[in-house]
Amino acid sequence: MCDLIFCFPQIKKQQQDVMSFLAANKIDFEECDIAADEDNRKWMREHVPEDFRPATGNPLPPQIFNEDRYCGNYEAFFYAREDNAVYAFLGLTAPPGSKEAEALSKKTQM
């Protein structure tokens, strides 16, 4: 299961983009509201690795996790989607017949 951490109205489009993709691909996820739940906000801030935190302030949502494993932010998700590598980004096995699985199959045949 992938956990998604969201808040702020300005991020709503990114939130919808991630959730729509996950739902369309039947990937289970849990949306965690950091605006209304201080524990979720604290958890997100503590679990974003130091290398991925902004120089000043706190990391902004959406931040994407697979359980406790940090996957990345929206920008990283966007690029993984563009590269047909979302399952790898999420730490999941691509389902047979998916573009990602086909690309991996071609790489291993070389």
TrEMBL record:
It comes from Cyprinus carpio. The keyword Protein transport does not apply. Its main location: membrane. CDD domains: GRX_SH3BGR. It comes from the Eukaryota. Keywords: Cell membrane, Cytoplasm, Membrane, SH3-binding. Pfam families: SH3BGR. The keyword Isomerase does not apply. Belongs to the SH3BGR family. The lineage of its organism: Eukaryota, Metazoa, Chordata, Craniata, Vertebrata. Monomer. Interacts with PFN1/Profilin-1. Interacts with ERBB2. Interacts with ATG12. Interacts with BECN1. Interacts with translating ribosomes. It is found in: Cell membrane; Cytoplasm, Cytosol. Appears to function as an adapter protein that bridges proteins together or proteins with mRNAs. May function as a ubiquitin ligase-substrate adapter. Additionally, associates with translating cytoplasmic ribosomes and may promote the expression of specific mRNAs. This is SH3 domain-binding glutamic acid-rich-like protein. One of its GO terms (molecular function) is SH3 domain binding. One of its GO terms (cellular component) is plasma membrane.
